[in-house]
Input
Amino acid sequence: MAQAATEAVTGAAPTAPATIGDSEFDRDTAVTLREEGVYDAELSAGWTIIHAVNGGYLLALLGRALGEALPHPDPFSVSAHYLTASVPGPAVIRTQTVRTGRTLSTGQASLFQYAEDGSEIERIRVLATYGDLDTLPDDVRTTALPPARCAAGSAWPTAATPTRCRCCSPWTPCRRPRSSWA
Output
């Protein structure tokens, strides 16, 4: 229904359905399995900053590929290294399972594009740990303690943070004595 309305308004032909949802982001981050561990993607010009493709968008593409390649669906920890600037156009994502356990899987992925001479250029490399959020118990909590609070309920300033807190005007230094900072 939405595709028919879009076609009627814009005159554009309907697009292929997205793999996750039906948003522009879902369609633009879709990956196509070429063979085990290898995915094809099209880097959209709509996600560029000046001439380079946005890094968060690239990370979403790699995350999508890893989510399909690993036995656990949800990213728990991701480390990305941006090696060279990406440009809109075709790309290849190669994934590798590093370790698979009962509750977590670790994988790596790299996004490549082709240079004018046909050689591959690695653009971004990711190492990530995936798990399954649906299998976690409801009582999972952090052991971290909240930061110390001032009388107004905002965090006390510390030597490592600016000398302002929300209990005082944002334009004046905190009125609390420095000796009382956490």
Remarks:
- Residues 55-69 form the longest helix (15 residues).
- Confidence is low (pLDDT under 50) at residues 1-10, 14-19.
- Helices lie at 2-10, 24-28, 55-69.
- The chain has three domains: 1-30, 33-132, 148-182.
